[in-house]
Batch of 3 targets.
Target 1
Amino acid sequence: MLQAADLATIRAIITRAKRWDMLFALLGILSLMVGVLTFTVLFVDMAIQGVPRLDYNFFTSFPSRKAANAGILSAWVGTILVMLLTALAAVPLGVAAGVYLEEYAPKNWITDIIEINISNLAGIPSIVYGLLALGLFVYYFGFGQSILSAGLTLALLILPVIIVATREAIRAIPQSIHEGSYACGATTWQTVSDHILPYSSAGILTGVIIGMARAIGETAPIITIGALTFIAFLPPAPFAGDPPAGLFEWIFAPFTVMPIQMFNWTSRPEAAFTINAAAAGFVLVFMTLAMNGLAIYVRYRLRKNIKW
Amino acid sequence: MQIQTGLEAGVEGALLKADVRDLDFYYGSFHALKRVTMPVYDRKVTALIGPSGCGKSTLLRCFNRMHDLYPGNKYAGGGIVLQPDNTNLLSPDVDPIEVRMRISMVFQKPNPFPKSIYENVAYSLRVRGMRNKNELDDRVEAALKGAALWNEVSNRLNELGANLSGGQQQRLCIARALASDPEIILFDEPTSALDPIATASIEELVTELKEKVTILIVTHNMQQAARISDFTAYMYLGEMVEFGVTDQIFIKPTKKATEDYITGRFG
């Protein structure tokens, strides 16, 4: 028989134990606030300084010695083109490597070493990639200080992120689906192309966007390979100009990108340039958020038709 | 081994479809199948019973070389010889994909692909290179009818397979396994995730299917084995304890161990 005293004891124990719940919840909220508040304050401060500076001319003007005339045309065009090349190089390579490691690679010590090294690669400081790219792409392959060199450098930088994301997305597919495909008589490639890739595409996309969001803000490796800080022309558009440019001539053009433009402006003594930098920073953050927003939308669309 | 007893007990006209001969199988260093020998008769239902971990699923998954997908698994001796061409399925010279094209499988948990009902069934045909739309339509319809699912899904072939109920999903997987006209269908506890009504419909289906195809079924449910199978094999600790005609195994098993398991004194 349960005694009234026993019940009181049980309740006291529960109350005591629940204090830890309260305590941890409080700690969690605090930790969350540190991150969220810091970002909000930074972003709002930048927006207050920068947003009034944003007008049509800011987006369509080249950099200038006069802060009021200076714009980010060459920087945002450069950023978009570099990102395009980064994605074109990193996505096929990263996805192919991830699929190979998950579906094809024999499980032995060589594969283990490769796996460990991929995780390590993700932690290497970006400036080291810059030095590698300076030697490899700029000089050895002779791509010069071009959009191509920058795109490939950033592609190398985010390759591990994409490989890891691809592998995790593939591992999230239930083993039973995997076996179901093989049991139908599918080859490994049929399993990959008919099942693995379509079902993991949402996860892979998330990894690609995380990688791209990292790449878009990278400054160090881009400076290392020699991006210009002051650039008053655009890469040649395909078939434009006289004599007409080739389809891919733009990839060998010199360039600048948003973070470098910002860095350049913050190092100027005049206050007006600091405002320009804030405005450019706002645009850069907005570009990143837009990319993430797109990713969330596409992921939602892709996931709608995937149910195990 | 009691194969002879089983055969005498009235299986006139049963042809051999496959036979397992002295099969040894290892998961790494674990000896999972020990010199297993057993016949599989053409267009009959053969049930594999035994307590968890006895090797019945392991044996089943040898028939379509599922073990080849994972490292460390080893066919260590003996084989499974498929008739009429006398091919040893486990021979290293035989491509596992060829084996899986001849022998299809239905899994424990329904595992439809996250594709449409139509595409789920058509997949077995597509991997065989079938591209003709009319031919695909006909074969998909025939397979869905064969799996007693056509009437329920004929007007929503483009819906996701996952939108069906559990029992319907399992019948969809049976249709997928059936579409390619296999010689043997392997069932790995196909009703363990289903409710009694869905289970009954799957059991009925299995007994219908045996007119066209040889069936090998692993089950935990002894009543199920008694209801639907023609032959029963009782396995324990990786060994084939007894094989025989189902009625004989359930009414008058020759081994004490089999009797103990069937009467529920053990396992």
Target 2
Amino acid sequence: MPAIKALPDYLRECQEQVEGHARDYGLDFFPIAYEVLDYKTMNEVAAYGGFPTRYPHWRFGMDYEQLAKSYEWGMSKIYEMVINTNPAYAYLLEGNSMIDQKLVMAHVCAHVDFFKNNYYFSKTNRKMIDGMANHAARVRRHMERHGQDVVEEFIDTCLSLDNLIDPMSPFIQRSAAPKADTGEEDLRDNSGRLRSKGYMESFINPPEYLEAQKKKREDEAKKIKKRFPEQPQRDVLAFIIQHARLEPWQRDCLEIVRDEAYYFAPQGQTKIMNEGWATYWHSKILTEKTVTAAEIIDYADACSGVLATSPGQLNPYKLGVELLRNIEERWNKGQFGKAWDECESMEQKRNWDLRTGLGRKKIFEVRKMFNDITFIDEFFTLEFCLEQKFYAFGFQERSGSWEIMSREFKKVKDQLLKMLTNRGQPVIVVEDGNFENRSELLLKHIHEGVDLDNGQARDTLRNASKLWTRPVSLLTKVEGKGKLLRCEDGNHTERSADYSL
Amino acid sequence: MSQKIDLDHGRFRQIIRGKIKQNLRKYISQGEMIAKKGKDRVSIPIPSVDIPHFKHGDKQQGGVGQGQGEVGDSLGQGEEQPGGPGKASDRPGDHLLDIDVSLQELAEIMGEELELPRILPKGTEKIVAWKDKYSGIRTTGPESLRHFRRTYRQAMRRQIAMGTYDAKNPVIVPIREDKRYRSWRKEPLPQSNAVIIYMMDVSGSMGDEQKEIVRLESFWLETWLTSQYHGIESRYIIHDAMAKEVDRDTFFKTRESGGTMISSAYKLCAKIIEEDYPSTLWNIYPFHFSDGDNWSVDDTHTCVELLKKDVLPHVNLFAYGQVESPYGSGQFIKDLTEHFEDDERVVTSEIKGKEAIMDSIKEFLGKGK
């Protein structure tokens, strides 16, 4: 980290003012350390995902070039950046107008409040600045020992699989050992015989039944013996780390990539909510407290830029803030619960107001408990969909263009949920770590209606087989038919296969 | 910190360079890159720089949007998904990454890959251009060149010396003697100029495919020569039975029918050289492309004579590229080889198709002339 320069006085005052209002509203955030950066440094830090201490890798250079270029061409400009640490670091762009800086600070307060309180961030490492620096030191050490090209290429390979993690796994308590004797008395003994009094034996345990039981147990035993992992495993990276034949430094690099992927995962899971929450609060704090009459036009201009929508693009800021406002209004007016759900008169619903005034309390609860999927699933209603003019679009082969497909509530919502499932990534699991008894790896794509991008899948499979050091296969569906892609020593084969396996 | 990103950025550019080199043959034989040419940069689509991931195919996926429009309204043509729903739009797409490369860098990459020798310009020491360079300060000059800071500094110095400077009310008024002006010096600028004279047969037997090859090849030749000389000019001659000078656009678009008299082009070429490009001052590169079908044996003789007498004595290199065409006899290249086999200044190359462009470039430029 570069030395943190003291914030100029006028910004310091501004920060105190904004944070004071934020606290009055009930926001609860880590201390925030601001730093003012010029646009070039801002682009650099952004290329590193907000962490100036990342390990050396060319893709940061690539991102930097793209950011720098789109800034120079006036296409985009990064206003602010904030990272999830305690204390939280946030960056301000030098030369922004006062109103922009105020807006950014209010926005940042809400982000940090979200980081601190949202359940999905609860397992993240709040000292990640140090974490990243340690990662960098480890990668550098490996580079010194094994050569930059070798290590960098290996990291490329690891990064290719960095979306194959299980973001929910930090929250799952798994018993370490297979379930031992639960204490509950099993009604059967080892042979599957049910307990019975002697004279009932032939009725309760007829020979055919015992025979069937025996066979069933044998089958089960066979299955369990064959299955490795016992359950299909979502965290493909962890499986590879545990079971692939890797050099220690390779395992270390893979662990670093996995660690960082888990660190960033909650941000992908809560993009809409997080941005919605921040937008809600910057607009609240600014319009109700800090904006002066002279600044209001500039504020409105900046705000409209944030909330603009364009065809075929979902603006998470817009969706998030509108949905939060909708929730607040509904809970203020008591538009929830059994009576509301069962009411069928639109007229009555429109004028429904019980003056419950629970809105503010509700949205704080929402920010604590929900992620994007549950947020949309729970609160994206027919009324909201109509009011906000949502539509689902898709590719029309006939005309060769992207078209609005439907404005039907159910279709829109389904599409939205589909896009958010697993952060929009396909679900891939380790199905078999000893495929066909040749210590090959079998991955399975849990097909949910959308095929994989074939070219990318092949390249990724090649990388997976580099990590596994043995051939890797992927079971998926292409146009409704089961397909098994296999990669051995960089060569691909493809055959049709039984998808259910 | 700034050094850190520079390292990563440097790595990235290095990887790009490697990719371009690897795929140079493909880029050379494809026109799409030239279509994106800017003033001194080209945009090159680089495949698979980005790290591959398992991801959904676009087309079945669709997305959700917000706003006006009827069902069935179009959101945008083409394969690319508009915007990329739900994603920040600043991420690079997964397909091809367009990378900007300067022509200078491209020429270097080509030079390395084809192992082209650097050209030793002839007569460099004779050719000198003068360039004005601001190099100092003086007390007289036009007001437009007045050096603001130096003038005020001088005025301040004078006022302090005279005791009329008041730190509480720091008003500085320069007088005439305080004024300072930028001055310049003429510097010799060693310069080597080159001219490329393109000649192309546009008779009926040269089809679109043949012209495309010429267009690609001339782009790469020009890229290389541009990197070797400070200033480069291009002239364009088309010919069938008659030759005329045209502009670049016309050069690549014209299609005539009729016969072929190559001598007409060489005559015009010799005339241009004589009128505009004294060979003491210019490095001259005539490039001639044809399908090798000349009108008559007599005309071929005339050509050889013209080359010997009026063209070759002036030029660095005379390059003849013969594009294979289903109609041409391909005789002319044999005639040239027969007469100029031992002449270092003449290079001939047969270009069988787009794939052969790279080899042909190597033949043309491999001599370092």
Target 3
Amino acid sequence: MADFGRRRSLLNTVRLGLRLARAGGKVRMALVVVGAMVGALMILIAFSIQHVVDTQWTGNLEREPFHEEVAAPEPDEWIEHDDGTTEVVEESKPQPLHAADPNSTLQLAHGTGGELGVTDEALIRYVLGDGPSPPGVAAVPDPNEAYLSPALLEHVEQSASAQEKFAGFELHEVSREGLGYPNEYVAYIGVTEAQFPGDVDVEPSVLSWGISYADETMLYNPQRGTAVPIFAFMLAPAILLLATTTRLASSVRTERMAALRLLGINRFRTRLIAGIEAASLALAGVALAVAILPLLGWLTAGRRLFGLEWFAGDFHPALPAFIATVLFVPVITVLTAFVVLRKISHNPLQVRRKAANPAPSYWRLIPLALGTVALVLVVRGDLSIGAEFDAAINVYTFLAGAVLVGFGILLAIPVFIRRVAGLLGKNTSSPSVLLAARRTQYEPAILNRLVGGLILVLFIATGGQAVILAFEKTPQYQRAVEATSGESTYLRVDSNAIDMSADPLEVPEDPALTTKQLEAVGLVESVVPLRFIRGNVEYSDTGEMDLEILVASCAELARLGDMRGECSDDAVRTFAGHYGDLEHLTVFADGQEVPIPPHVSATDFAPETDILYYDLSLPPSLPELQEVGQIPPTNWLVEVPANQEAWAQVQQEINQIAPEAWVAEPQTYALEEVANVRMGIWLGTAVAGSIAIITLLITAIDNGIARRPQIAMQRAFGVSLRRVRRSQLLQALLPLVVGVPLAGAAGILAGQAYTALDVSGPTNTYWAAVAVTLGLAVGAAILLALATLPAIGGKIMPQSLRRE
Amino acid sequence: MKPSTTDPLSARSNQPIPRITGNDLALAFGQTQALGGVNVDVNPGEVLAVMGPSGSGKSTLLHVLAGILRPDAGEVIYRGRKLSELSARRRDAIRLREFGFIFQFGDLIPELSLAENVALPLLMTGMRRRRAMRRARWMLERLEIADVADHSAAQASGGQVQRAAVGRALVHRPSVVFADEPTGALDTVTGELVLTALVDLAREHDSSVVLVTHAVDVAAVSDREIVIRDGKIAVPKQFRPLSALEQVR
């Protein structure tokens, strides 16, 4: 009987929990559900990306050829121990995933995307003979037959050079099974023995497709690491979001639970009620997230995100990860609810009386102060403990400073906000400002921590912007921009006339190209001939070496780029300190060996193109060179329009004239590097900023809801809606007004410190970063301000006093 | 002796120009008839007690007279102006500048100090901070809570909060103070202190007070009282001497 009573009592407790979940108010319930949904969705997205990476890795193993020869013993790995002994470690050999075909005559050779005019990563395979079909391919293609992925087929339709490559080919499509991702470039091209790029006599037969290893370490996916930061990056904000929304729900719950505790309901029961209430809302959020995920997969399929592309069907978490998420979100929600309940256990009466929030301690400013000092030291370059340690000490000081400032902002923001709001409240005559300031001053710590989160994001964005701007000032970036978007740029054409492996006294063949031929190439605007001769040098540090030496006058060099330092037409020019002192120099030209006195006039020559490089240059007016007669140009700088299509066209035409000629394009890696940094910073800012904003919005809305009775009372007193709104807006803006200058200043300092680590010195181009920060802050402020309005909206009329 | 009313079915006073007049006020919330044809006058400087059991319509009448609720029928005339004919903005302005309000739990803004809460109506009407705060502190001195002027509402006791609410209601010298169960949450002694302060200050400022209560002792300080039952005025009581208040003093 007693048991029955206890069970029924427990059941009633559960019912009460469910009832209270519904009683929290529609808006609050919706906020918690949305918070749980966004949090769960982010975790599911992170797991889905992980799954995509894993699936594509598995898919790649499925497309790996298995041939008998590979399975044959290979040189084993030797490990040398400290005591001088060695140990043979037998390497794990690939195993076929499917039954091998012993009669297979299929041979495979790899090509590159460049052969088809594709610059992205591509899987190009030439096949010869017959055997098992690769995944996604109906039958091994015969000569003049090819299977191409849909993306490559589309490329062929659009590219004249690719069409030329496949002229007379029967083209088929590689099906989904043969693709890692939707826009992957894959080709299986059937060729004749004569066309086969590999060595037919040596290349082993493919017995089956798909490999595995007995040793699981061999199956390690090197790309797996790319998903980890994304995962961590999304998991942390997701947990923050979940915890915040749960705490919000708890703010209502806390009072109710305190009342229940005062009534004598024990700690277990109050926890049970709170847990059921929190978990039921969290589960609703998770259910929504699970429903939305496939839609997200469908929307993102075929788009390049996080450096990946995926099929909609692959974008889902693995089952264990899915189960873990579905359990994790309610569990963390319930745990957070329990943490909040601690206060009730200690002193329920105090909770009921709504004791004032204590002022944050000034000790919280210490990390920010220490971090700032560290960054200032890096910027000023004052840190030195010995030349060999300087770089390391600066890097570690920067890292420590940046981390301290980051954490310091989170800790210090509540102090600053409270202090500024206190001063404002003490001195203002405006009732709106007074209300906003005082409310801000006594805001719960959690809200100010969230504002701190947003300020932290702004700090990262500002610092990142300063770094990007510094990168954009580098000569290599400027040159890359000029090369791709200026009026014209230079390609370097090398006729490969100097064969460094040949006898130096052998008279070289005439160059395969002439200046006139190059001038006649379409799109070429001008041609600068360069003369190189073969030389043998001996430096004090590096010893003897053969190299190509540029023969050009100072006037010619000046045409090619900025000249710094002295340039002399009377002596050898080399770069000071590169290899030590030049001790001996001989040049070979026209079958002669001509010693040149190693009198060096060191210059610093910075060519404005990245494609012209040499270690040594000689003035053509040197008396010793007069003996060798006219040196024909073997290299040229060809001026072409500054776009990559033009470069490809020029390159194609030059190769038609001289197939062995080598054309070097301007280096544009700096563009990609900066784009990657920018992408990383923006992505980080976007994800962290979105979460901070969502969390703040949820909190602001909740805050507004909590203030409704107070606002209704003010409205009854005759306070206009405009004044009420103004006060709410000011309250939303005040923390940002305090935090944004801090974020801007700290971000610029961090950006300066980061760039100070580089030889280029600290950046001073940060005004654009400030503009970006202010832009983001204004955006955040507008969102926040708008978020406060629905809660208090126009619906709160004086008569609302009765309802509220 | 207080003057008696002439019409036993209305709360009309015999004074010539009432400050607020409610004519045939009727208001229903769904099926519930909160007010069913109430006539009432509030005269200058008088303390009108509105009594009745819970749910009888006392607070509704207070809210209608203050222009917070709009009656379904009838009209409220304040200083010769029909409130229903005024724009919402104008009604807001009247409540802000000419009325004062006290509620059962004080309902101060918890983040503001008691002095700032009291100064709020003055600041709302454009007074400079220094002057507003000086007047608020003076008011708190009158209410004998100057020592906690800088405490927040959360730090003050219920009686202190309620006295500060009285100060807030009267600091801008309103024409009418609407007090809805101002002592309902207080013990007898503190309640009497609050009531004394309210009545004294109101008389000093020549403010009328509409005092909603169901406590007979509280009503005893009034000049006149009416009893509401089921949304209608029950037979109004005669004016009585301020016996209870005098006893407190």
